Fold:
Amino acid sequence: MEKIIELLTALPTEAKDLRINLKRVLEGESLDSEQTWGTALASAYYIRHPELTAAVLADAKSAGVNPATLEDARGAASIMGMNTIYYRFRHLMNTEAYNQRPANLRMMRMQQVATTKVNFELFSIGPAALAGCEMCLKAHEAAVKKDGMNEDNVHDAVRIAAILHGVAVALDSI
Amino acid sequence: MNTVGDKFPQFKVQACNGLTNDDLTTYSNESFDGKWKVFFFYPKDFTFVCPTEIVEFSKNAEEFEDRDAIVVGGSADNEFCHMAWRNSHEDLRDLKIPLIAAPKLAHDLGILDPEESVCLRATFIVDPNDVIQYAAVNNLSVGRNVKEIIRILDAIQSDELCPCNWNKGDATLNV
Structure:
């Protein structure tokens, strides 16, 4: 966690809470190491703070995270970058005219996962929470629970995304 | 003729991938495991309509590759005939797609012209599980529009795989 700690030390004292939260959450609670780092990385990509992303990526690699997990985190973040915009539009409009139209968007990557479907779905939870779309979040939450995850897992994934978002804001406020 | 929903027949065919004997190879269903496949058949080597559409498919090889799809051309001619044709026709020398010798496969697909025993101008899009997702056949004198094949492939592949697509009341959400 060397690179992230380096970043965190640069944070102002006002952001001390975030520092403590991030260290704690990355040490892993209900999620295993692959799931924790995959979630963190997908969220970081979605937040688009280059310094933060670089630190999370470097630390995930030194934590020995499987390259397939890194790939899926990137895949989930980019697909969610598209889908949270498109489906949030559909969910917000909520009219037959759009609900009935085929999206006509490729999203094959969701089927061709490098790790497991459930981990790929888990990595999508952070971005769904960050996008702030109620229905996307409910749908992805239901998807991971259907495949055997529980509320603790989802809760930790969202906490990781939330803390990283706070850290990105704090970094930009220095 | 085989159609949408049918399993693509088992095949083992000789194929021509270049201009010399070293470029001959064998393909079977397993050769394209996990890929989307676009098979297009044409009546005869050494005719006029055929090279234009083969060249057009070849020019778009990267478009298909981006879509995880392999493009394979075929007729009832044998692999040496394909090779001779490619050597004799300027436009066919640099083809990026294989031409297969497919009399049996064409028979199994039901696309042989009963009079002449040549392949009809048939096109199949086959999914990674070897199930046919698109089947069409043109009159022998009508060439294919490759852009249209790409459009169809895009439409077939544009599944709404995201859970966000679930509607209220869908079974998946009610678990």
Notes: Chain A has nine helices and no strands. Chain A has one domain: 2-172. The longest helix of chain A spans residues 67-93. The mean pLDDT of chain A is 94.
